[in-house]
Serine hydrolase (Agaribacillus aureus), 864 residues
Amino acid sequence: MKTIIGLVFLMFICVEINAQEALTAEQSDPAKLGWMQGFPPPKDKIISAIDGSFFRFPALRYSVCHMRQFMPTTEVNAATTNRYEFKVTLDRNIDTLTFLPWNSSEPQTWKESLAKNYTDGILILHKGKIVYERYFGELKPDGVHAAMSVSKTFTGTLGALLVEQGVLDENKTGADYIPELKNSAFGDATIRQILDMTTGLKYSEDYSDPNAEIWAFSAAGNPFPKSSSYDGPTNYYDYLVTVQKEGVHGEVFGYKTINTDVMGWIISRVTGKSISELLSERIWKPLGTHVDGYFQVDGAGIAFVGGGFSANMRDMAMFGEMIRKNGKFNKQQILPPSLVEDIMNGGNQEAFNQSVYSTSLRNWSYRNMWWITHNEHGAFAARGVHGQTIYIDPLAEMVIVRFASYPEAKNSKIDPTSLPAYHAIAKYLISK
Amino acid sequence: MKTIIGLVFLMFICVEINAQEALTAEQSDPAKLGWMQGFPPPKDKIISAIDGSFFRFPALRYSVCHMRQFMPTTEVNAATTNRYEFKVTLDRNIDTLTFLPWNSSEPQTWKESLAKNYTDGILILHKGKIVYERYFGELKPDGVHAAMSVSKTFTGTLGALLVEQGVLDENKTGADYIPELKNSAFGDATIRQILDMTTGLKYSEDYSDPNAEIWAFSAAGNPFPKSSSYDGPTNYYDYLVTVQKEGVHGEVFGYKTINTDVMGWIISRVTGKSISELLSERIWKPLGTHVDGYFQVDGAGIAFVGGGFSANMRDMAMFGEMIRKNGKFNKQQILPPSLVEDIMNGGNQEAFNQSVYSTSLRNWSYRNMWWITHNEHGAFAARGVHGQTIYIDPLAEMVIVRFASYPEAKNSKIDPTSLPAYHAIAKYLISK
């Protein structure tokens, strides 16, 4: 039962579909499949958060653009004044640019890669101007898309901002700020370890294991009615105090969502504001965004900051460009340059290479909930399952935002046809 | 169980609180009571749609501004271009204007009436300019508020628009447009009878009766998981086909929410669009509204058009002013003047006087889901429980929008200190 409750609204579920056997992007187009269309929709076209059907491919391709049709949410208000308007100078050459996918000797065009990756939306900024912008499937220019774990990057950036401002001391511990965390794994974990996910946690995100802790976390955050036999925690925070330590903090990068949720809790405790409010006030409004974003919430109104954000693509691009411009955007210094410098300097590569990413993303690092490639362009990214990303290439003065609904959750399936494609575009833009 | 399921998300529940014994507006201020405040909120400050606590006074005073924090919703997108900006010329005299509440010999000031009515927001337009605008409790200028049955007026207006355009024939029946309705009470009810709620329906909205049909309707539309023993309809439309006839259509006004929901279904069937989409395209965007509104939805994504709309106060005022100006607003003819004329001419007063409103609202009528006062100013209104209204006084060139969270649902408790107050303001504005 716990598993079912968790499954219901888990945002980054590992869908057990082999993409090789799945419908293609064109075949799985939501408009073609007719999810939730008709008055009323036919019974077999109704998808729901209750039975988890909304998060199974290909229904997922519809749901990612309509998360709040299935779940309670809270606003991240966009700007109401000083809205930013991008300049657009489309580059017709990009579609035919080619790159070599990882582990392949067959060049692929950029345009081909979009369908291969079940892209719902993609936008490329070069020197701050839109040079490429496409919408597929269910995504509309004025709509939103689930950001999945790109959500983490916003919480991490807000946490790092508070460190820069001296509101948080990165050497203090979770328990220093939230006494309730004292007996949990976060009790003696420092803010820095939490921000960089080098905490040692007894916490498995192995979805194939019914006893994995992820299910208990998900059940706690599930906003729908619990079964009468359920006696576990009833919101995210009540779950976080139960997390136990495993190993030593500070040594190994362990990509675990609950670090973000505990970071969100600490931020809210010290500022007295929810992450939704803070993200709106400090970032979304100053950027001049156009479309309200939103977080899914648990039964206590607490946002799922580890994965529950949905936002508009151009608004996401504003955020990426602001970071690329060292915190300055829309005629304001929104974040201090030192914060961006800290992200770009990266995290502990040694700790990263001891993680499960040691092969696929060798020599990368993780800092303030950003992924740092340490490649020759100094590229870094926000990344979420099913293909979500904000990819920033400082040398190429390029920002890419991608929303996608790839049949499988793991980015390891998507990276081979996306990361080399981004790098190829970057090299092309430099050469222009 | 059916009752509990229904109770959960019912939007126009008759809260059994005697306002005389309730906390005052000041005492029940949500910020003071701390609903959903804190990280996490204290257990006794957590309110929820699941147990119905979000809709009980005084928690209701918080929830009305945050409905989507508790329930799945669907957008009514605001304008993204040509946004309308009101001119503001505040009139300082309004607060001290006095009126005589119904059945009272003690004059009350306008300002006093606001607290008496648990006003969350109130806005007065005179000749299109804002002359009065106040926000109380949880409502913020850029926020939204539950419109309750004011929602009906939007569906009714869209239905009447389709009649004006010849898309719907007001003499055809529900079954002519939706064959599935053939064996229901709506099968032989005309579009006109549905729009004016003169249908004869075996349908009770008596909340004190556990067998009242309202509970079955609510259970069907409840987006949360049903109990395993539940075998009733699982969305609004599947319920509507089960409604049985009682009496004769066309003779008596019977204010029953399901007329609106069936009207919404008919509109969607003939246009191929949801009410959310249509309201946005045909009205909300042309008006130049600023804030996305939203409808709560059932498990099939169908909006609760009979009562589930939430919107921004200034945006509501734009709608009211557009109607007052015979359909023209923001430099566009948004609705045909003939439609507004049809509303203002009113409905069948004889049918109205045979309803439960024959005493309290003697000689009023109901047309296209608007309430027509037939007073000497020709005033007419959209009305929702707990004190929601858009009140239009053509002679005074006045539009009032009120959002409120009165402890009791019934407007009969609120009318004595609001309707005479509106009329007093109208007379003052005429005399200015």
